[in-house]
Amino acid sequence: MSSLQVGYTPPMSTPARRSVLKLLATAFALPLLCASAHAQDWAKTRLEASPRHHEYATLKHGDRTLQAFVVYPEVKQKATVVVLIHEIFGLSDWAKEMADELAGEGYIVIAPDLLSGGSGPNASGTPSYPDQDAVVKAVSGLDPAQVTADLDAAADYGKKLPAANGKTAVAGFCWGGGKSFAFATHRHDLSAAFVFYGPPPPDVTSITAPVYGFYAGNDARIGATVPSTITEMKAAGKKYEVATYDGAGHGFMRAGEDPAATDANKKAREQALAKMLSVLKQVSTMPMAKLGAPANSSKGQAKNTADAAPMCHDMKDMHAGSL
């Protein structure tokens, strides 16, 4: 005679169990995918509310053509140009919103989509990739020489704008921060280079512009490169001002703007942006010949709280030219 145990459920067959596990995995994954897809909705909303003029410019060099997002300030006088280099996430809504924010402070900002200009289904750049993983993979595989040529095209374009005052700065974030530092070794008419938590180039001796580095206290991967870079820049007679923000995580310029930002990331972003704007103001009024001085280091005052913003990439080679 058979009996039924109360609270007992007979084990599922292996195929049935796999089906249930698959359904559960999908159920848990969907919210995460949605969260990832809409993680920058706040940036897109702010961008759409901007009163400033946005346009896409076509940049050409050699047989290559790429697109750049350009934002103009609402000012009477001619403005300094800032070439903005996106993160490893491509020309995202946040990168464009960051460009708009800088334009709101009185600067012409040119943000090239370094994934545009190719051939095939992804020729139109960042928006043509199916997901963030594909973008990260594509940016990671960009040829450093091509990136430099693309940035040259962006800087050249800015120099020719009637609304520009002839001065150019470069700013990059994470992967783009490394490219900003590397671009300063190549381009000798830059008024300033801003490096946000990016790695240094292998050789700094050819740099002519002052370099301003902004780093997170909770980012040992990049922070470990700073002391030796200070030494190298000082030995080469280059200006390298460093600020490290205690408690902030890698990517704090983006993470600190998120409505869910930690206090440390928010404070780091505010202080770093204030420093950047102060330098840009000096750049806009100072003669080119006076832009330069010995290296030095400063320490940010952000609260020392544990925080780990999402990493831009998992870089094995710390030089700016590679991942």
Task: Give a structural overview.
With 323 residues, the protein is an alpha/beta fold. The protein has one domain (41-284): Alpha/Beta hydrolase fold, catalytic domain (Rossmann fold). It contains ten helices and nine strands. A nine-stranded mixed beta sheet has the order 1-2-4-3-5-6-7-8-9, with helices on both faces. Residues 1-38, 291-311 and 313-323 have low confidence and may be disordered.
Q: How are the elements arranged and paired?
A:
Layout (H helix, E strand, L loop, with lengths): L13 H24 L3 H8 L4 E9 L2 E9 L6 E7 L7 H12 L3 E5 L19 H9 L3 H17 L3 E10 L1 H12 L3 E7 L14 E8 L1 H4 L2 H10 L4 E10 L2 H4 L7 H23 L10 E4 L24
Helix pairs in contact: 2-3, 5-6
Which regions contain 5 or more consecutive residues with pLDDT less than 50? 1-38, 291-311, 313-323
Number of domains: 1
The CATH topology is Rossmann fold
- Overall number of strands: 9
CATH 2nd-level architecture:
3-Layer(aba) Sandwich
Output the strand order for the largest sheet: 1-2-4-3-5-6-7-8-9
Mean pLDDT across residues: 83
The number of distinct helices, counting runs of at least 4 residues, comes to 10
Instruction: Using the CA coordinates, give the radius of gyration.
Output: 23 Å
Spatial shape: globular
By helix and strand content, what is the structural category? Answer: alpha/beta
Strand residues, percent: 15-25%
Query: Based on the structure, what is the oligomeric state of the protein chains?
Result: single chain
CATH superfamily label:
Alpha/Beta hydrolase fold, catalytic domain
User: Could you name the CATH class?
Assistant: Alpha Beta
How far apart lie the N and C ends?
68 Å
H/E topology pattern? HHEEEHEHHEHEEHHEHHE
Largest sheet: 9 strands, mixed
Helix content: 25-40%
